[in-house]
Specification:
The protein is α+β, with helices and mostly antiparallel strands. It is 27% helix and 32% strand. Strands 1-2-3-7-6-5-4 form a seven-stranded antiparallel beta sheet, with helices on one face. α1 crosses α3.
Amino acid sequence: MRPLSKVWLALSLLIVTPLAGAEDFGVANWGQSAMAVRDLEQRPNLTPLSERDYLIYEASLPGINRTRLVYQFEDGRLETGRFIFNVAPGSPTNVWLEQFESVRALITQQYGEPAHQQVIQPAGSSNNPPDNWSDALERDAVILKTQWRTDQTLITQQLAWNGSRPHHQIIYLPVNGVDLSDSGTSPF
């Protein structure tokens, strides 16, 4: 099997399979307790012992240096889920962009076209797509954002500059009346 095929297969198993079931995020449903999620989750638990507001689990994907699943709780109930992705240390910014596009394509394959895609640029900028996406990301001049919506969950993928490096994550939130009526066409 070619390396790229292995990456797609692994991404499918990590992201698509948990989402294809009845779960809202990972192995859990919105509102479940941390104890219930801990009992269901089979991945390696990386959560600090004293932490009560979130659970962190390790996931392994070929081509992605590190992936973390984070369950966040409010008042003891699951309120937010995140996938946080990293590339190998020292990788150029274009690797982050390629990873963003690969994950976006996989989620689009599962849920269909995104409800909303945008490039967020600082106020006063021309709002024209940059000539060099890597350079624009490194200058903190763009944030890439894509959203999908299911009956229960709003899924937001983001790539932004964070301090001295890119930050790539997918955030899962219960729908609870989120309005995507201003959905636009893809800027990519």
